Amino acid sequence: MFLIKTEKEFLQAFRPRDREKVELPKGIKFPLFVRDYFTWVEPAGTRVFLVLPAPDGKRPMGIAFRRDQHAGVTPSHMCDWCHAYGSSNEIGLLTADVSSKRRVGVNLCLDLRCKEKLESAADLSGRNPRDYTDALMERMTHFAREALRIETVPED
After folding, report:
1. pLDDT, tens digit, for every residue of 71-100?
2. Between the CA of residue 135 and those of 32, 71, 81, 115, what are the distances in Å?
3. pTM here?
4. What is the maximum span of the chain, computed from C-alpha positions, in angstroms?
5. What is the domain extent for residue 29?
6. Domains in the chain, number
């Protein structure tokens, strides 16, 4: 759990290279209390944003993903974070810039609603949803740290 007090603090969660791409979700109000992570899709639908707690516990970290569109029909895919299956309209490649010359991608739920899917599956199976959510958060953090080299966002 974490608290974001202001819009400035919210934007500072993102790496400087991503801040100009961030379009705040409509109706967002501060302070913003976030239980696990916060995600939204920009109105144009080409970017998906994720804010999650930093591994060091200091400031949250943000990731700006781009939805890579593929022409034609593709088979179903599995989300690498929540392991849900879905069509190419539900699960696909999301990419994030590492640098101006390098981008990494991962197959994910295109709306990043992984937590909701895991909670639903846990409810149906009679299991504790927290067990699934903890593993999901670990996979998200692992991607941020290993693929994007995000430990914490530097202060401005």
Report:
1. 556 678 899 999 999 988 899 999 999 998
2. 24, 33, 9, 10
3. 0.87
4. 46
5. 2-147
6. 1
